[in-house]
Amino acid sequence: MNHREVARSRSGRVREKLKREEVAGVAVVASVVDSGSAVSGAAAVADNRSTADEIPLMIAINGKFTSQRLTGVQRVAHELTYALSRLLPHESPILLVPRDYLDDQLSPWVSRRVVRRFRGVLWEQLALPFAANGRTLLSLCNVGPMFMRRQVLMIHDAAIFDLPEGYSGKFRLWYRFSFGVLKRNVRHILTVSAFSKARIATQLGVSPDKISVIRNGVDHLDRVVSDSSILNRLGVEPEGFVLIVGSLAPGKNLTRVLDAIALLARDSGGPKFVIAGGKNVKIFGTEARDGGAAPENIVWAGYVSDGELKALYERAVCFVFPSLYEGFGLPPLEAMYCGCPVITSREGALTEVCGDCALYCDARSAEDIAAKITHLMGDADARETMRTKGREHARTFRWKDAAAELLSVLRGLE
After folding, report:
1. Which helix (H) or strand (E) holds 263?
2. Looking at the domain assignment, is residue 7 inside a domain?
3. Range of 64's domain?
4. 11 inside domain
5. Mind giving me the DSSP string for 345-391?
6. Digit-coded pLDDT (tens) for 180-192
7. Which residues 6+ apart lie within 8 Å of 61 measured at CB?
8. What is the Cα–Cα distance from 322 to 345, expressed in whole angstroms?
9. pLDDT, tens digit, for every residue of 14-47?
10. Local structure of residue 98 (DSSP, 8 states)
11. Residues 291-311: pLDDT tens digits?
Protein backbone atom coordinates (compact mmCIF):
# COMPACT_ATOMS: atom_id res chain seq x y z
CA MET A 1 0.00 0.00 0.00
CA ASN A 2 1.53 3.37 -1.01
CA HIS A 3 1.47 6.63 0.97
CA ARG A 4 -1.64 8.02 -0.73
CA GLU A 5 -3.58 4.78 -0.13
CA VAL A 6 -2.54 4.80 3.52
CA ALA A 7 -3.66 8.42 3.84
CA ARG A 8 -6.99 7.69 2.19
CA SER A 9 -7.57 4.67 4.41
CA ARG A 10 -6.70 6.64 7.54
CA SER A 11 -8.83 9.57 6.37
CA GLY A 12 -11.80 7.26 5.91
CA ARG A 13 -11.50 5.93 9.46
CA VAL A 14 -11.17 9.42 10.93
CA ARG A 15 -14.12 10.72 8.90
CA GLU A 16 -16.25 7.88 10.27
CA LYS A 17 -15.09 8.69 13.79
CA LEU A 18 -15.75 12.42 13.53
CA LYS A 19 -18.91 12.37 11.44
CA ARG A 20 -21.34 15.18 12.27
CA GLU A 21 -24.82 16.26 11.45
CA GLU A 22 -25.54 19.97 11.01
CA VAL A 23 -28.85 20.85 12.69
CA ALA A 24 -30.08 24.46 12.42
CA GLY A 25 -26.61 25.56 11.50
CA VAL A 26 -24.95 24.03 14.61
CA ALA A 27 -22.61 21.07 14.23
CA VAL A 28 -23.79 18.31 16.57
CA VAL A 29 -21.55 15.36 17.15
CA ALA A 30 -23.29 12.17 16.14
CA SER A 31 -22.56 8.69 17.28
CA VAL A 32 -19.03 7.44 16.88
CA VAL A 33 -18.31 3.89 15.97
CA ASP A 34 -14.94 2.32 16.77
CA SER A 35 -14.44 -1.47 16.82
CA GLY A 36 -18.17 -1.98 17.35
CA SER A 37 -18.43 0.05 20.56
CA ALA A 38 -20.17 3.40 21.02
CA VAL A 39 -18.20 6.39 22.25
CA SER A 40 -19.84 9.49 23.65
CA GLY A 41 -20.00 12.64 21.53
CA ALA A 42 -18.24 14.64 24.22
CA ALA A 43 -15.32 12.22 24.29
CA ALA A 44 -15.04 12.44 20.51
CA VAL A 45 -14.83 16.24 20.66
CA ALA A 46 -12.16 16.12 23.37
CA ASP A 47 -10.17 13.56 21.40
CA ASN A 48 -10.56 15.67 18.26
CA ARG A 49 -9.10 18.75 19.91
CA SER A 50 -6.21 16.94 21.57
CA THR A 51 -5.08 15.18 18.39
CA ALA A 52 -5.85 17.88 15.83
CA ASP A 53 -2.33 17.88 14.41
CA GLU A 54 -2.55 14.14 13.73
CA ILE A 55 -5.91 14.17 11.94
CA PRO A 56 -5.76 14.13 8.12
CA LEU A 57 -7.49 17.23 6.85
CA MET A 58 -10.54 16.61 4.68
CA ILE A 59 -10.43 19.71 2.50
CA ALA A 60 -11.98 20.65 -0.83
CA ILE A 61 -11.01 23.90 -2.52
CA ASN A 62 -13.50 26.05 -4.43
CA GLY A 63 -11.94 26.08 -7.89
CA LYS A 64 -14.17 28.62 -9.60
CA PHE A 65 -11.09 30.83 -9.91
CA THR A 66 -9.54 28.34 -12.36
CA SER A 67 -11.98 29.51 -15.05
CA GLN A 68 -11.10 33.20 -14.60
CA ARG A 69 -8.36 35.53 -15.79
CA LEU A 70 -5.30 35.42 -13.55
CA THR A 71 -5.43 38.75 -11.67
CA GLY A 72 -4.66 39.55 -8.03
CA VAL A 73 -7.32 37.54 -6.19
CA GLN A 74 -7.01 34.57 -8.55
CA ARG A 75 -3.21 34.68 -8.17
CA VAL A 76 -3.56 34.30 -4.41
CA ALA A 77 -5.94 31.35 -4.83
CA HIS A 78 -3.63 29.58 -7.27
CA GLU A 79 -0.54 30.05 -5.13
CA LEU A 80 -2.17 29.03 -1.84
CA THR A 81 -3.66 25.94 -3.50
CA TYR A 82 -0.26 24.98 -4.93
CA ALA A 83 1.64 25.64 -1.68
CA LEU A 84 -0.94 23.80 0.44
CA SER A 85 -0.74 20.78 -1.88
CA ARG A 86 3.05 20.75 -1.58
CA LEU A 87 2.78 21.00 2.19
CA LEU A 88 0.32 18.07 2.39
CA PRO A 89 1.56 15.57 -0.21
CA HIS A 90 -0.18 12.57 1.42
CA GLU A 91 -3.47 14.27 2.30
CA SER A 92 -3.61 16.74 -0.57
CA PRO A 93 -6.75 18.91 -0.76
CA ILE A 94 -9.03 18.23 -3.72
CA LEU A 95 -9.49 21.18 -6.06
CA LEU A 96 -13.04 21.11 -7.40
CA VAL A 97 -13.13 22.83 -10.78
CA PRO A 98 -15.91 23.70 -13.26
CA ARG A 99 -15.86 22.17 -16.71
CA ASP A 100 -14.56 25.41 -18.28
CA TYR A 101 -11.42 25.50 -16.10
CA LEU A 102 -8.14 26.63 -17.68
CA ASP A 103 -5.84 23.62 -17.55
CA ASP A 104 -2.66 25.55 -18.43
CA GLN A 105 -2.90 27.51 -15.16
CA LEU A 106 -2.94 24.46 -12.87
CA SER A 107 0.09 22.78 -11.34
CA PRO A 108 0.41 18.97 -11.69
CA TRP A 109 0.97 18.93 -7.92
CA VAL A 110 -2.68 19.82 -7.37
CA SER A 111 -5.28 17.04 -7.24
CA ARG A 112 -8.40 18.12 -9.09
CA ARG A 113 -11.86 16.86 -9.90
CA VAL A 114 -14.11 18.32 -12.57
CA VAL A 115 -17.67 19.06 -11.47
CA ARG A 116 -19.55 19.28 -14.76
CA ARG A 117 -23.01 20.47 -13.77
CA PHE A 118 -23.71 24.18 -14.32
CA ARG A 119 -21.27 27.05 -14.76
CA GLY A 120 -20.47 30.35 -13.06
CA VAL A 121 -22.60 31.38 -10.09
CA LEU A 122 -24.95 28.40 -10.42
CA TRP A 123 -21.96 26.03 -10.34
CA GLU A 124 -20.63 27.64 -7.17
CA GLN A 125 -23.94 27.89 -5.37
CA LEU A 126 -25.62 24.61 -6.40
CA ALA A 127 -23.16 22.01 -7.72
CA LEU A 128 -20.13 22.77 -5.53
CA PRO A 129 -21.67 22.09 -2.07
CA PHE A 130 -22.71 18.57 -3.13
CA ALA A 131 -19.35 17.89 -4.76
CA ALA A 132 -17.55 18.79 -1.50
CA ASN A 133 -19.16 15.64 -0.04
CA GLY A 134 -18.69 16.45 3.65
CA ARG A 135 -15.24 18.00 3.32
CA THR A 136 -14.45 21.45 4.66
CA LEU A 137 -14.69 23.80 1.67
CA LEU A 138 -11.97 26.42 1.33
CA SER A 139 -13.17 29.39 -0.75
CA LEU A 140 -10.30 31.79 -1.49
CA CYS A 141 -11.86 34.43 -3.76
CA ASN A 142 -14.26 36.50 -1.63
CA VAL A 143 -17.42 34.41 -2.13
CA GLY A 144 -18.52 30.79 -1.85
CA PRO A 145 -21.73 28.77 -1.55
CA MET A 146 -23.85 31.00 0.64
CA PHE A 147 -25.68 28.29 2.57
CA MET A 148 -22.79 25.90 3.12
CA ARG A 149 -21.70 26.01 6.74
CA ARG A 150 -18.70 23.70 6.60
CA GLN A 151 -16.70 26.38 4.84
CA VAL A 152 -13.71 28.68 5.42
CA LEU A 153 -13.87 31.87 3.36
CA MET A 154 -11.13 34.31 2.36
CA ILE A 155 -12.29 37.93 1.95
CA HIS A 156 -9.46 40.05 0.58
CA ASP A 157 -10.75 43.48 1.56
CA ALA A 158 -13.79 45.57 2.39
CA ALA A 159 -13.49 47.81 -0.68
CA ILE A 160 -17.08 47.10 -1.72
CA PHE A 161 -18.09 49.10 1.40
CA ASP A 162 -15.14 51.47 1.79
CA LEU A 163 -14.83 52.46 -1.89
CA PRO A 164 -18.26 51.76 -3.43
CA GLU A 165 -17.71 54.16 -6.34
CA GLY A 166 -15.13 51.71 -7.64
CA TYR A 167 -17.78 49.12 -8.53
CA SER A 168 -20.92 48.89 -10.64
CA GLY A 169 -24.32 48.88 -8.95
CA LYS A 170 -25.03 45.22 -9.74
CA PHE A 171 -21.62 44.13 -8.45
CA ARG A 172 -22.11 46.06 -5.18
CA LEU A 173 -25.59 44.60 -4.68
CA TRP A 174 -24.45 41.01 -5.24
CA TYR A 175 -21.42 41.21 -2.97
CA ARG A 176 -23.20 43.01 -0.13
CA PHE A 177 -25.97 40.43 -0.20
CA SER A 178 -23.46 37.56 -0.38
CA PHE A 179 -21.37 38.89 2.51
CA GLY A 180 -24.49 39.42 4.60
CA VAL A 181 -25.37 35.73 4.29
CA LEU A 182 -21.87 34.25 4.33
CA LYS A 183 -20.77 36.01 7.51
CA ARG A 184 -23.47 34.11 9.41
CA ASN A 185 -22.83 30.71 7.85
CA VAL A 186 -19.10 30.14 7.32
CA ARG A 187 -16.99 28.60 10.09
CA HIS A 188 -14.16 31.11 9.77
CA ILE A 189 -13.00 34.08 7.69
CA LEU A 190 -9.50 34.59 6.31
CA THR A 191 -8.01 37.81 4.99
CA VAL A 192 -4.63 39.10 3.81
CA SER A 193 -3.63 41.95 6.15
CA ALA A 194 -4.30 43.45 9.56
CA PHE A 195 -5.84 46.45 7.77
CA SER A 196 -8.34 44.24 5.94
CA LYS A 197 -9.13 42.33 9.13
CA ALA A 198 -10.06 45.54 10.92
CA ARG A 199 -12.17 46.83 8.02
CA ILE A 200 -13.99 43.50 7.50
CA ALA A 201 -14.75 43.23 11.23
CA THR A 202 -16.16 46.77 11.19
CA GLN A 203 -18.12 46.61 7.94
CA LEU A 204 -19.56 43.11 8.43
CA GLY A 205 -20.04 43.35 12.18
CA VAL A 206 -17.96 40.21 12.73
CA SER A 207 -15.85 39.53 15.81
CA PRO A 208 -12.12 39.85 15.08
CA ASP A 209 -11.73 36.44 16.73
CA LYS A 210 -13.51 34.93 13.73
CA ILE A 211 -10.97 36.40 11.28
CA SER A 212 -7.38 35.21 10.69
CA VAL A 213 -4.70 37.00 8.66
CA ILE A 214 -2.82 34.98 6.02
CA ARG A 215 -0.50 37.43 4.29
CA ASN A 216 0.36 36.87 0.64
CA GLY A 217 3.63 35.56 -0.73
CA VAL A 218 5.55 36.89 -3.70
CA ASP A 219 8.07 34.15 -4.49
CA HIS A 220 5.88 32.82 -7.32
CA LEU A 221 8.10 35.08 -9.41
CA ASP A 222 10.90 32.53 -8.96
CA ARG A 223 9.00 30.27 -11.37
CA VAL A 224 8.53 33.02 -13.95
CA VAL A 225 11.03 33.34 -16.80
CA SER A 226 11.69 36.99 -17.60
CA ASP A 227 10.72 37.93 -21.18
CA SER A 228 12.78 40.97 -22.14
CA SER A 229 11.36 41.03 -25.68
CA ILE A 230 8.62 43.24 -24.25
CA LEU A 231 11.09 46.14 -24.18
CA ASN A 232 11.62 45.96 -27.95
CA ARG A 233 7.90 45.61 -28.55
CA LEU A 234 7.18 48.74 -26.52
CA GLY A 235 10.21 50.66 -27.79
CA VAL A 236 11.73 51.37 -24.36
CA GLU A 237 15.27 51.07 -23.02
CA PRO A 238 16.40 49.57 -19.68
CA GLU A 239 16.39 52.21 -16.94
CA GLY A 240 14.69 54.54 -19.40
CA PHE A 241 11.09 54.22 -18.27
CA VAL A 242 8.84 54.43 -15.20
CA LEU A 243 6.48 51.48 -14.76
CA ILE A 244 2.84 51.77 -13.70
CA VAL A 245 0.60 48.72 -13.21
CA GLY A 246 -3.11 49.19 -12.72
CA SER A 247 -6.46 49.76 -14.34
CA LEU A 248 -8.98 52.54 -14.85
CA ALA A 249 -10.80 51.47 -11.68
CA PRO A 250 -11.13 54.58 -9.48
CA GLY A 251 -9.26 52.97 -6.58
CA LYS A 252 -6.13 52.51 -8.69
CA ASN A 253 -5.92 56.30 -9.08
CA LEU A 254 -4.65 56.20 -12.65
CA THR A 255 -6.20 59.56 -13.51
CA ARG A 256 -3.96 61.35 -10.98
CA VAL A 257 -0.96 59.45 -12.29
CA LEU A 258 -1.77 60.73 -15.77
CA ASP A 259 -2.07 64.25 -14.37
CA ALA A 260 1.34 63.84 -12.72
CA ILE A 261 2.81 62.63 -16.01
CA ALA A 262 1.36 65.70 -17.74
CA LEU A 263 3.17 67.91 -15.20
CA LEU A 264 6.44 66.06 -15.81
CA ALA A 265 5.99 66.23 -19.59
CA ARG A 266 6.72 69.97 -19.45
CA ASP A 267 10.37 69.06 -18.95
CA SER A 268 11.99 67.75 -22.13
CA GLY A 269 14.20 64.68 -22.01
CA GLY A 270 12.19 62.96 -19.26
CA PRO A 271 11.53 59.21 -19.09
CA LYS A 272 8.79 57.28 -20.79
CA PHE A 273 5.93 55.92 -18.70
CA VAL A 274 4.85 52.34 -19.39
CA ILE A 275 1.30 51.58 -18.19
CA ALA A 276 0.55 47.85 -17.96
CA GLY A 277 -2.90 46.47 -17.16
CA GLY A 278 -6.43 46.88 -18.34
CA LYS A 279 -9.93 47.77 -17.34
CA ASN A 280 -13.15 45.91 -16.70
CA VAL A 281 -16.05 48.29 -17.30
CA LYS A 282 -18.61 45.62 -16.35
CA ILE A 283 -17.20 45.38 -12.82
CA PHE A 284 -15.71 48.78 -12.19
CA GLY A 285 -18.39 50.88 -13.88
CA THR A 286 -15.94 53.34 -15.44
CA GLU A 287 -15.19 54.39 -18.96
CA ALA A 288 -11.82 55.10 -20.53
CA ARG A 289 -10.27 58.48 -19.92
CA ASP A 290 -11.07 60.90 -22.75
CA GLY A 291 -8.51 63.14 -24.28
CA GLY A 292 -7.60 61.68 -27.66
CA ALA A 293 -4.20 60.25 -28.38
CA ALA A 294 -1.83 59.54 -25.51
CA PRO A 295 1.15 61.87 -25.00
CA GLU A 296 4.38 60.74 -26.62
CA ASN A 297 5.95 59.86 -23.28
CA ILE A 298 3.20 57.34 -22.39
CA VAL A 299 3.32 53.74 -23.66
CA TRP A 300 0.15 51.72 -23.11
CA ALA A 301 1.21 48.08 -22.80
CA GLY A 302 -2.22 46.62 -22.08
CA TYR A 303 -2.34 43.16 -20.51
CA VAL A 304 1.11 41.57 -20.30
CA SER A 305 2.24 38.04 -19.47
CA ASP A 306 3.94 37.19 -16.19
CA GLY A 307 7.26 36.93 -18.00
CA GLU A 308 6.82 40.32 -19.64
CA LEU A 309 5.78 41.94 -16.37
CA LYS A 310 8.81 40.51 -14.59
CA ALA A 311 11.08 41.96 -17.28
CA LEU A 312 9.44 45.36 -16.91
CA TYR A 313 9.88 45.25 -13.12
CA GLU A 314 13.55 44.32 -13.51
CA ARG A 315 14.37 47.06 -16.00
CA ALA A 316 12.24 50.02 -14.91
CA VAL A 317 13.92 52.96 -13.23
CA CYS A 318 11.10 52.87 -10.66
CA PHE A 319 7.55 51.62 -10.10
CA VAL A 320 4.68 54.01 -9.28
CA PHE A 321 1.60 52.73 -7.42
CA PRO A 322 -0.35 55.57 -5.74
CA SER A 323 -3.48 53.50 -5.05
CA LEU A 324 -6.37 54.92 -3.05
CA TYR A 325 -7.24 51.55 -1.49
CA GLU A 326 -5.47 48.21 -1.14
CA GLY A 327 -6.39 45.25 1.02
CA PHE A 328 -2.81 44.04 0.57
CA GLY A 329 -0.95 45.50 -2.41
CA LEU A 330 0.85 42.73 -4.30
CA PRO A 331 2.26 44.78 -7.24
CA PRO A 332 4.65 46.96 -5.17
CA LEU A 333 5.88 43.83 -3.37
CA GLU A 334 6.45 42.13 -6.75
CA ALA A 335 8.41 45.17 -7.91
CA MET A 336 10.60 45.05 -4.79
CA TYR A 337 11.20 41.33 -5.30
CA CYS A 338 12.52 42.12 -8.77
CA GLY A 339 14.77 44.92 -7.52
CA CYS A 340 12.66 47.87 -8.66
CA PRO A 341 12.42 51.00 -6.43
CA VAL A 342 8.81 51.69 -5.42
CA ILE A 343 6.80 54.89 -5.06
CA THR A 344 3.45 54.19 -3.44
CA SER A 345 0.77 55.75 -1.24
CA ARG A 346 0.01 55.36 2.45
CA GLU A 347 -3.53 54.16 1.78
CA GLY A 348 -5.03 50.87 2.96
CA ALA A 349 -2.52 48.14 3.78
CA LEU A 350 0.35 49.59 1.71
CA THR A 351 2.44 50.84 4.65
CA GLU A 352 1.84 47.52 6.43
CA VAL A 353 3.12 45.61 3.40
CA CYS A 354 5.89 47.90 2.13
CA GLY A 355 7.30 49.04 5.50
CA ASP A 356 10.22 51.48 5.22
CA CYS A 357 11.31 50.13 1.83
CA ALA A 358 9.18 52.43 -0.35
CA LEU A 359 9.03 56.15 -1.06
CA TYR A 360 5.56 57.36 -0.06
CA CYS A 361 3.49 59.97 -1.86
CA ASP A 362 0.16 61.72 -1.32
CA ALA A 363 -2.23 59.69 -3.46
CA ARG A 364 -4.60 62.65 -3.79
CA SER A 365 -2.01 65.10 -5.11
CA ALA A 366 -0.75 64.86 -8.70
CA GLU A 367 1.86 67.47 -7.77
CA ASP A 368 3.26 65.30 -4.98
CA ILE A 369 3.28 62.18 -7.16
CA ALA A 370 5.23 64.12 -9.80
CA ALA A 371 7.63 65.48 -7.16
CA LYS A 372 8.40 62.00 -5.80
CA ILE A 373 9.09 60.69 -9.31
CA THR A 374 11.41 63.63 -9.98
CA HIS A 375 13.21 63.09 -6.67
CA LEU A 376 13.82 59.39 -7.25
CA MET A 377 14.83 59.89 -10.89
CA GLY A 378 17.50 62.33 -9.78
CA ASP A 379 19.00 60.24 -6.96
CA ALA A 380 20.80 57.11 -8.19
CA ASP A 381 22.15 56.30 -4.73
CA ALA A 382 18.64 56.34 -3.23
CA ARG A 383 17.42 54.01 -5.98
CA GLU A 384 20.24 51.55 -5.32
CA THR A 385 19.53 51.58 -1.58
CA MET A 386 15.84 50.98 -2.22
CA ARG A 387 16.63 48.09 -4.57
CA THR A 388 18.66 46.33 -1.89
CA LYS A 389 16.22 46.96 0.97
CA GLY A 390 13.23 46.12 -1.18
CA ARG A 391 14.62 42.76 -2.27
CA GLU A 392 15.45 41.75 1.30
CA HIS A 393 12.02 42.84 2.55
CA ALA A 394 10.05 41.15 -0.24
CA ARG A 395 11.84 37.83 0.28
CA THR A 396 10.21 37.50 3.70
CA PHE A 397 6.82 37.06 1.97
CA ARG A 398 6.74 33.40 0.92
CA TRP A 399 3.80 31.26 -0.16
CA LYS A 400 5.11 28.28 1.80
CA ASP A 401 4.83 30.34 5.00
CA ALA A 402 1.34 31.50 4.02
CA ALA A 403 0.25 27.89 3.46
CA ALA A 404 1.70 26.87 6.85
CA GLU A 405 -0.28 29.65 8.55
CA LEU A 406 -3.41 28.57 6.68
CA LEU A 407 -2.86 24.95 7.68
CA SER A 408 -2.54 25.99 11.32
CA VAL A 409 -5.88 27.81 11.13
CA LEU A 410 -7.60 24.85 9.44
CA ARG A 411 -6.27 22.36 11.99
CA GLY A 412 -7.41 24.65 14.79
CA LEU A 413 -10.97 24.42 13.48
CA GLU A 414 -11.04 20.61 13.54
Report:
1. helix 254-264
2. no
3. 54-217+399-413
4. no
5. ESSTTHHHHHTTSSEEE-TT-HHHHHHHHHHHHT-HHHHHHHHHHHH
6. 999 999 999 999 9
7. 81, 84, 93, 94, 95, 96, 137, 138, 139, 140
8. 5
9. 344 333 333 333 333 333 323 333 333 334 333 4
10. E
11. 434 567 899 999 899 999 999
